[in-house]
Amino acid sequence: MPTGCDARGFFEDRFDCFALTADDGQRGFVTAYYEPEIEASRERTDRFRVPFYRRPDDLVAVGEENRPDCWDPDIRFARANADGSLSAYPDRKAINSGFLDGRGLEIGWVENEADAFFAHIQGAARLVFADGAHLRITYDGKSGHPFTGIGRLLVERGEIAPADISMAAIRHWLAENPDDARPLMEENRSHIFFREAPVADRADGPVAAAKVPLTAERSLAVDRLLHTFGTPVFVSADTVNGAYWSKLMIAQDTGSAITGPARGDLFMGSGDAAGNRAGAVRSPCDFFVLVPKSVLIDTGKALAS
Fold it and tell me: Model confidence over 121-153: pLDDT tens digits?
């Protein structure tokens, strides 16, 4: 039997290991994310004009029990109408144009639209107010429109070379092209809503989808429709920040772009340094899920094979 400090022995003794493969049989893919820290205001001012919104009361989750027959199964949120029907929720452009104005949904205001946009992609942020107070916010639903990566659009249009694409490169392009920045960001129609998520220890990561604080380099975002939070997943990536990545992580979060059995997002921590590390991660990867030996797995039907 493994001793109390023998973590490897614990998992080897009590778990079986199964490889996760993509639907097309190809290797998996991993990216990374972080918690931005952004200067903010509790009120709108001439400087702080970009809001983070709470989830509206007319935004509802869409599942098998209420999805209209003609709707794509990937649509997971919609607008509930007064007559009980569902319709597509207004997208990022409509919300930027004032759709939610006057409803009192603003959590806080930031100065830079690109900062807010990247916080939407990360699914969390730490707002830092002038009086030194911090407010953690985290994902609480989205408009229901598919995620569109603006980095891919910039590469396709010849604005950034494929070898140079990173979060820093995208931010630089947005800053250098202010007239085109908002229209480009609005091509990602998915708009994210947030809730306040206090964390007792500032050294901890944000409270995410699993309702526990994330741990830098140990928390993994997965497809929530396919995986169970709390599952140990061994991640073996070809290159993360120029080095081979081989770590046991825990599935504790999800994300709009994280879909499929062999797709993951590494949580790298909070602040600018973590952001610089996270923004450069795009790597082929192998995932191995650890399943308790007491659980019976039908390898002919399971995602783990």
Answer: 988 999 999 999 999 999 999 999 999 999 999
Q: Read off φ and ψ for residue 138, nearest 5 degrees.
A: -145, 165
Neighbours of 70 (CB within 10 A): 5
The CB density around residue 176, as the number of other CB atoms within 10 Å, is 9
Report how far residue 242's alpha carbon sits from residue 129's, in angstroms, rounded to the nearest whole number.
Answer: 35
Domains of the chain: 7-148+188-292 (2.40.240.50)
Q: Does the pLDDT value for residue 3 go beyond 70?
A: no
pLDDT in the model for residue 300: 44
- Cβ-Cβ contacts under 8 Å for 64 (sequence gap 6 or more): none
Token duo for residue 70: 């003609």
Task: Give which of 47, 279, 48, 72 is closest to 160, Cα–Cα.
Answer: 279
How far, rounded to the nearest angstrom, does the alpha carbon of residue 163 sit from its chain's CA centroid?
Answer: 23
* Inter-axis angle of helices 113-122 and 167-176, nearest 10: 150
Residue 217's region, left for phi above 0, alpha for psi from -120 to 50, else beta, is left
Judged against a pLDDT cut of 60, whether residue 305 lies above it is answered with: no
Q: How far is CA 271 from CA 77, 132, 218, 257, 274, in A?
A: 30, 16, 17, 22, 6
Read off the pLDDT of residues 227-252 as tens digits, 9 standing for 90 and up.
Answer: 999 999 999 999 999 999 999 999 99
Contact by Cβ (8 Å): 99, 90 = yes
Choose among 270, 279, 286, 272: nearest CA to 35: 270
Backbone dihedral region for residue 242 (phi beyond 0: left; psi -120 to 50: alpha; all else: beta) = left
Sign of the CA dihedral 11, 33, 255, 201? positive
Task: Name residue, tokens 């759709």.
Answer: 99
Determine the pLDDT at residue 54.
98
The answer to pTM > 0.85 is no
